[in-house]
Design a protein that fits this description.
The protein is built from 21 helices and two strands. By secondary structure, the protein is mostly helical. It starts with a helix and ends with a helix. Residues 111-401 form the NADH:quinone oxidoreductase/Mrp antiporter transmembrane domain.
């Protein structure tokens, strides 16, 4: 990993920098697979690192999302530089932050010590903020600062939770520790009240990292302003927060504070889904719509974890994987449309099926998948989580189901209003007898069309507007991630089932 970081600072060629980033992701992916197949898990890796099925599973998801984003990044950053939105001198900084994000997240996931996990989780915040601010526009810098202040501020509460936990272990064992492996052995000896307080504080920090309401306010701005290559924020940053919540709740399940901790998770989950569902309906910005969708899905994940049954956790873990596949499909497709229209607003998206048919279908199929329609794999995950929630409260299930329907309607509403827009260029051509290839600020009556295209780019007689800003390599990762999601909808590999069962067993869900 260090070799890839060092080599990434040497080349001046964008192609080579991108190849090193993709190689970094592939290396993490391959090494995680080898560890799952070859190592006797769980096991230690030196003094501070600990490998088990859970952190390797999250690492696999992270590396997969990162690798897809790395391949997407080449065409996307080329288009940003060609449009003058990214200074070529910042390209090395971009790839340095990009690679560092994966490395710091990996160390955080494999850390046995909670303090080490906290430190490297905070470092991922810095790296992610660099990716948001890389375009140097004022709005991007504001979004990056907002992200840092909210997440880092919330992580200070998590630090207080660590202090509580260390004090509890010191009282029970005579010597304080923050190692996961030691805490899970002795957690039944801790004071339930103080343990719950520690969980509550840490939930604030990890919940902000995951984008859970009400700590989600950084998410819409970060999604809207960050380059679409930062789709890894969904696959990496949010899963890192959920990982910390799963670990902490697994600790509390061994104490009498488990019911109260479950109530916190369920309440936060319902609140996240409710806030996101009502916020999504009026969204006109595509990336903000996708951002609020992430808040909704994090809420459903919290419900799956908070229910506390093996079946609910099984499908919550599966949900983490599929959510990344589908969400990156949506964000990659949104990035293609952003380069086409230089906008994320649905009012500016005209002739989508003519100009970018693959991105249009990526958004349609991705939207169908993200709302949990069969045969896409989020359908069984949502179904079984809701089925398990009925055992907690039928009213809870009904409320969540209604809000999920509202969220589905939001996607349908956005797509219908965006994709039904067609330019009136041909009608104006008939009236004014102006050649299509010379449509511009003079000769087109449609003000919307002028705003969308003519004021933003110069025309080329042989190309459609902004077509040159969309590179063919940007479409491949979106198609690949969508294909994986569809495949999981039809076939559930035995190896994946065995991996999820092993995680549940190691966490003590028996």
């Amino acid at each position: 990993m260090g070799i890839f970081l060092a080599l990434g600072l040497i080349p001046k060629s964008h192609r080579l920098m991108n190849a090193l980033a993709a190689g970094n992701g592939l290396l993490h992916l391959v090494m995680s697979c080898i560890a799952l197949l070859m190592l006797d898990l769980p096991g230690r890796l030196g003094e501070s690192l600990y490998l088990d099925h859970l952190n390797l599973y999250v690492e696999l998801i992270t590396a997969l999302g990162f690798t897809a984003a790395a391949f997407y990044a080449r065409g996307y950053t080329d288009s940003l530089m060609e449009a003058g939105e990214l200074d070529p001198r910042n390209l090395k900084t971009f790839y340095l932050a990009f690679n560092l994000l994966l490395v710091t997240a990996t160390v955080a996931l494999f850390s046995d010590n909670l303090a080490l996990f906290w430190i490297f989780a905070e470092l991922t915040t810095v790296c992610a903020a660099m990716l948001v601010a890389i375009l140097s526009a004022r709005e991007n810098i504001d979004a990056a600062l907002k992200y840092v202040f909210i997440v880092s501020g919330a992580m200070l509460f998590a630090f207080l939770g660590l202090i509580f936990l260390f004090t509890l272990s010191e009282q029970a064992l005579g010597e304080g520790t923050l190692n996961w492996t030691e805490l899970e052995v002795h957690v039944s000896e801790f004071s339930p009240a103080l343990l719950l307080a520690s969980f509550a504080f840490m939930f604030i920090g990890f919940g902000a990292k995951a984008g859970v309401a009400p700590f989600h306010t950084w998410l819409p701005d970060a999604y809207a302003r960050a380059p679409s290559v930062s789709a890894i924020l969904s696959g990496l940053m949010q899963n890192l927060g959920i990982y910390g919540i799963i670990r902490m709740y697994a600790l509390l399940r061994e104490s009498s504070a488990a019911p109260q901790a479950s109530s916190i998770l369920l309440a936060a989950g319902v609140f996240s889904i409710a806030l996101a569902s009502f916020s999504m309906f009026q969204q006109r910005n595509l990336k903000r719509l996708i951002a609020f969708s992430s808040v909704e899905h994090m809420g459903l994940l919290l419900i799956g974890i908070g229910i506390g049954t093996p079946l609910a956790l099984f499908w919550a873990l599966f949900y983490m994987l599929v959510h990344v596949l589908v969400k990156e499909t949506l964000l990659f497709s949104a990035g293609i449309l952003h380069r086409q229209y230089r906008s994320n607003m649905r009012e500016d998206m005209r002739d989508v099926f003519k100009l970018q048919p693959r991105a249009a279908w990526g958004l349609i199929l991705g939207s169908i998948a993200i709302v949990g329609m069969p045969p896409f794999p989020l359908f069984p995950a949502k179904f079984f989580i809701l089925l398990e929630s009925a055992a907690v409260s039928p009213y809870l299930t009904l409320a969540v189901l209604l809000m999920l329907i509202l969220a589905s309607a939001s996607f349908a509403n956005f797509l219908l209003k965006a994709f039904s827009k067609v330019t009136v260029e041909e009608e104006n051509e008939k009236d004014r007898h102006i050649p299509r290839t010379h449509a511009g600020t003079e000769g087109v009556k449609s003000k919307v069309f002028i705003k969308t295209f003519a004021e933003k780019v110069d025309y080329d007689e042989n190309r459609l507007p902004n077509q040159y800003l969309v590179r063919s390599g940007m479409r491949v990762p979106a198609v690949f991630m969508l294909a994986l999601a569809i495949a999981l909808g039809f076939y559930f590999p035995d190896s994946l089932k065995d991996l999820l069962d092993a995680i549940i067993l190691e966490l003590g869900y028996v």
